[in-house]
Amino acid sequence: MSATAEQIKSTLKGGEFLVKDTSFADVFIPEELNEEQQMILQTTHDFLDREVMPRHEQIEHQEPGVTEELLMKIGELGLLGLAIPEEYGGLGKDFNTNSVVVESMAKARSFTLSWGAHVGIGTLPIVYFGNEEQKQKYLPKLASGELKACYCLTEPGSGSDALGAKTRADLSADGTHYVLNGQKMWITNSGFADIFIVFAQVDGDKFTGFILEKTMPGLSLGAEEKKMGIKGSSTRQVFLENVKVPTENLLGEIGKGHLIAFNILNIGRYKLAAGSLGGAKVCMDTAINYAGERQQFKVPINTFGAIQYKLAEMAVQTYALESACYRASDLIDNKEKELLAAGKSFQEAIMGAAEEYAIECAFLKVHGSEVLDYVVDEAVQVYGGMGFSEEAPVAGAYRDARINRIFEGTNEINRLLTVDMLLKRAMGGKIDMMGAAMAVQKELMGIPDFGTSEETTFSKEEKAVKNAKKAILMVAGAAVQKLMTKLKHEQEILMNVADMILEVFAMESALLRTQKLASLRGEENVSIHIDLMKVYVSDAVEKINLHGKHALQSFAEGDELRMMLMGLKRFTKYDPYNTKEARRRIAKHLIEENKYSL
């Protein structure tokens, strides 16, 4: 892939959205998918409907060979090689195209996980960190589906603390191979994988990646795990007993395995958010359809206000998540193009882009998984008693969704990472949070701005977004000043701040998408989008106020607390908006379309 200076947009650095404004002209929205992306999207949907969905029960019961066969078939379509460069048998598509496919694959549930583990954490370590010989040997067969891959990081004693792994690798006396001993657990695709990306401590203290093959003596598997959900995916323990791994199968550099693990996780976190978005849309379609068919008191239940509220709120949450996901996808995509234009290699470009937006990837993982949990829970509620039956599709979806808050680092870990990375960038001078925070402090001491400028359709929301960012800078800045090095031990406060950040990015993304749609189609033609955005903003400022209040009350008191609470109240003001009527209009649109169609 290559890029010219003309193709590259001017974009913000990772985390910089907190201190700088973004123009709606600079964001990418799903309505802007190009013809090729639409074609790939249709190919994906057709394959799922024709090949995967009719075999759902076989997949769920792990009938031997079914998932492997489907992976081969989807490989024939090129959908295993989207992120693999063309010279190694892939399609070499950009990040936005990959995002579209990840989202659309979500309807396949357990098969989605098998596919995602293969194309993502199973294959990308070789794409990004493999040497030329390793790429030539493995990537063409991974792209075709002839080889299936898995990723072995987690151990019984090291989940979130991945670098605490105990699996050991020792170089043989003749220097020809490493001997690996250890145990991995929760390994997706391990039951049928041919390639195992394994992390081990060289000499007991140098965290390093390796490429193992299932035929290597000493590699064995435990029984299939009995899981709450995603039952159709293979999940086993992997045992390594004196496995001899040729030195040419060392992945990357000795002691640099954390670069592989963490960068692959950055991408995995974003893709989990995109997959959660796709899952939320599928659940919404199911709930909307059922609410139109199910009758109580001789009328469809979708005529009831309580049900309309649920359908509308599912759409509000999904719209904001969708806006945030594609905005972040495009940030990563453009950074990759910028680095390619600067002469960086393909691997350096995508790794640099993923690292740049690691903050966004972390909180989007949290946001996406929690929106999906909300949507699928409400879908069960719309179904009522039938929702609790395995005969209805939402019961399985409910169970499947729960793992997403644990995958790719728990949501608690990702909340903490969000704030930790942001503060480190601020302290390192990469983001001017100090100057912005001082400006907020100065504003608090001055006379409030009551606003005299001319109002537009979106001016109140623009002000709400700007002020919400000030609320974060005030709370985070005060916490740093007050607690200093002790802040890292105050996880509750850090999670409060992370939730404020998450809400700001989502509300701003929804606003920017809506503004862009209005500029393209005319405001009169995007009234539902405006309702969706305004409802989200109205609720988001309340959540930001609550999270901020919890944080401030944790470390401040007396006059200092009173002053900051007054500032928080000032920064989370939003004019009253009739969200009930807006939700009714949203629900009416959904019911008429009989699906999530925005």
Describe this structure in words.
The longest helix is centred in the middle third of the chain and has 37 residues, at 257-293. The chain is globular. The chain has helices at residues 35-52, 56-60, 66-76, 95-105, 110-122, 124-129, 132-144, 257-293, 305-341, 346-356, 358-383, 393-401, 411-427, 433-445, 459-483, 491-521, 527-555, 558-571, 579-593, and strands at 149-152, 168-171, 177-188, 195-202, 206-213, 219-221, 235-246, 250-251, 295-296, 299-300. It has 19 helices and 10 strands. A hairpin with a 3-residue loop joins strand 4 (195-202) and strand 5 (206-213).
Shape: globular
Query: Helical proportion?
Result: 55-70%
pLDDT below 50 for ≥5 consecutive residues: which ranges? Answer: 1-6
Query: Could you say how many structural domains there are in total?
Result: 4
Distance between the termini: 32 Å
Summarize the structure.
With 598 residues, the protein is of the alpha+beta class. It has 19 helices and 10 strands.
Name a few traits of the molecule.
Butyryl-Coa Dehydrogenase, subunit A, domain 1, 10% strand, disordered N terminus, Butyryl-CoA Dehydrogenase, subunit A, domain 2, 4 domains, Butyryl-CoA Dehydrogenase, subunit A, domain 3, 19 helices, two-stranded antiparallel sheet, 598 residues, alpha+beta
Write the layout of secondary structure elements.
Layout: H1 35-52, H2 56-60, H3 66-76, H4 95-105, H5 110-122, H6 124-129, H7 132-144, E1 149-152, E2 168-171, E3 177-188, E4 195-202, E5 206-213, E6 219-221, E7 235-246, E8 250-251, H8 257-293, E9 295-296, E10 299-300, H9 305-341, H10 346-356, H11 358-383, H12 393-401, H13 411-427, H14 433-445, H15 459-483, H16 491-521, H17 527-555, H18 558-571, H19 579-593
Parallel strand pairs: 1-4, 2-4
Antiparallel strand pairs: 2-3, 3-7, 4-5, 5-8, 6-7, 9-10
